[in-house]
Every structure is written in structure tokens, then in C-alpha cells.
Amino acid sequence: MARAPGVSMSRMDTAAATLPTFDDVLDAAARIARLAHVTPVMRSHALDSLADCSIAFKCEHLQRTGAFKFRGACNAVWALPDAVAARGVVTHSSGNHGAALALAARTRGIACHVVVPTGAVATKLAAIEAYGATLHRCEPTIAAREARCDAVQRETGATLVHPYTDARVIAGQATAALELINACGEFDALVVPVGGGGLASGTALAMARLAPRCRLFIAEPAGAADTARSLAAGERLVDFVPDTICDGLRGTLGAPNFSILLAQGAHALVVDDADTVAAMRLLWTRMKQVVEPSSATVLAAILRHREQFAGLHVGVILSGGNVDLDDLSQLFQLS
């Protein structure tokens, strides 16, 4: 098994529990450089015209495993000391993070356990298994996921890699915005989707250092708008039952993620599922890019709130492209 580059044991003992810094983002970029794709940035004159602004799309649906999640999972796995990594990793996930962690674990030759809720998208579960993970099923609640994770961790000695609160994961997700800003220069606004907040808080970290005058907007489905409520109240309000087609955005906002977003002054934009599917259709037809509903929330937010973005240079992150093709006909009926 290969040794994790550049990480001391004492630093790793507390890495998952602390808030990441911009230096951690740079470390993550170096650590995952040989494994993660530098995804392309695309533009569309047609969508610019519809939105009345200039949009640069960071195409993380073209990342390994089809989502940005590979960045954070890869950083977390390769940051582990050898003796810890040898016991494997465990997480809970409805799809994209589980697949990402499974592949990251495979690149290091270690075991991966993924707790999955009943009702998760079948194609995403198939991908997790295909990358070599062992699946452990549970009821579709956050409490059930966490309880099953604890049990697997006790049974195996595996290290928990939380989908969005782990500092190593947040730092890894931040590398998407790092690449986007480095490629395109400072934006007037960045728009990213939010569920648990790993990508959103990572983007905030990169922005604070590289684009301090840029405004951060986070797109959130109306059926899982805990981030919007929390930011408005100034405290985490996460007692809700998600009801949205955006399966990747059903997680509750993490505490460290909320702290970072609040400090950065993030603005939440809530969109309904019909607008999201309409935006997804535009991305498929105008840009020929197959993205999942969670990705399309960013374009839906811009189109719903045109007045906020009119005339601006806007960067967005298309978070993933793992669509269940069997559900497409039913899905597009919403738009």
C-alpha cells in the first residue's frame, strides 16, 4: 500500500475534526493531482442570452465517478497514514460520495464500506458496488445512516469519511473552485449547489483567498431548504424531511459547513423541482451535457433570479452527471 504523501501522524489525528484552511486546500490539490481530472470549463452563448449574464460552467459531471465528490474522497483517503488506511474506510451515502470513496479506496488498495439508505437511486448503488465497496443497507433517515456507520466502524476498525463535514473532504471539494478561478480569473459571483455543504463550504474557502470581492450564491431545492433557513436565522435549522428529486441534495447542512458559509456571507437561492428539471433540459439540449438534477439547480437559480446576475461574470459548478436513465420520462414530465 502506498504511503500518503506529506502528512504527519499528529496532523492526521485531528484533521477530520477541525475546520480546513486555504493551506489545506492547496495541500489537497497537490495530493489528488495525479488521480483527479482537471475538468473543463464550458460556455454557452445561448444560455448567456437566456440568463442575461456571462456564465462559465465548471464541468464536474466529467470528473471521475461522474461527480465532484471524487476530489474530497480522494484527498481523505490519501491523507490517511498507512496504519490507519490499512483498516479501510466507511461512510454513508445515497450515491455519489459512496462511489467516489469506493474508487478512492481502490486507488490505494484498501477496503471501503458504504451505508446506503433504502430507496436510493439504483444506478448509483450499482456504481458503488462496481468500484469495489461493500454495501450496508439502512432505513432512509440520517439517524439510521449514522447509527449503521457507527456499527460498521466498530466491527471493522475503518476510518469514517463523512460525506461533507470531514475537513479533508471539504478541502478536496474546494479544489474545483480553485481550478475554476485559476482558469477564468475573479468572478462577480459563483453559484454552487448545496446539500450537506461540502462543495459550498469548500468553494467559500477558495473564494475567500482567490476572489474576495466575489459573491457566493448557493442553489438549494425548495424541498430541502435547510441551508436557506439556517443562513436567514443565523443558526442551523435542520429538522426537516427532504422532498425533492435532487437526491444528491437531501443531506442536512453540516455544522462546520454552516460556519464557513455564514462567515463568508453566502446567499441561498431556493428553486423548485420543476425549474430544476427545466434547467436540466436546457443543459442537455443547448450544451449537450448530461447532468443530474442536483447539478441543474445552479442554472435554475440564475434563471429564476435573473435580476441578481444581470450583466455579471458568473462561475458555476455542475456537480454531477449520474442520472437514472430509467426514470427520465417521468422526470421530464415535471418541466
Name given to the CATH architecture of the largest domain: 3-Layer(aba) Sandwich
Number of domains: 2
Low-confidence stretches: 1-14
Choose one word for the global shape: globular
Q: Give the helix proportion (percent range).
A: 40-55%
Category by helix and strand content: alpha/beta
Using DSSP, what is the number of strands?
Answer: 10
Distinct helical segment count? 16
Mean pLDDT: 91
What is the H-and-E element order? HHEHEHHEHEHEHEHEHEHHEHHHEH
Biggest beta sheet attributes? 6 strands, mixed
- For this structure, the CATH topology of the largest domain is Rossmann fold
Give the strand order of the largest sheet, numbering strands 1, 2, ... along the chain.
1-2-10-7-8-9
CATH class of the largest domain: Alpha Beta
Beta-sheet strand percentage?
5-15%
Query: How large is the radius of gyration?
Result: 18 Å
State the end-to-end CA separation. Answer: 49 Å
What structural keywords apply?
single chain, 335 residues, alpha/beta, Rossmann fold, four-stranded parallel beta sheet, globular
Verbal overview:
The protein is α/β, with parallel strands linked by helices and 335 residues long. It has 2 domains: 29-67 and 166-332, 3-Layer(aba) Sandwich (Rossmann fold); 69-160, Rossmann fold (3-Layer(aba) Sandwich). The protein is built from 16 helices and 10 strands. It has helices at 9-15, 22-32, 45-51, 69-79, 82-85, 96-108, 122-130, 142-156, 167-184, 198-210, 226-233, 255-264, 273-287, 293-304, 306-309, 328-332; strands spanning 41-42, 54-59, 89-92, 112-117, 134-138, 159-160, 189-193, 215-221, 267-271, 313-318. The strands form 2 sheets. The chain has a 6-stranded mixed beta sheet, with helices on both faces. A 4-stranded parallel beta sheet has the order 5-4-3-6, with helices on both faces. Strand 7 (189-193), helix 10 and strand 8 form a beta-alpha-beta unit. The longest helix is centred in the middle third of the chain and has 18 residues, at 167-184. Mean pLDDT is 91; it is low at 1-14.
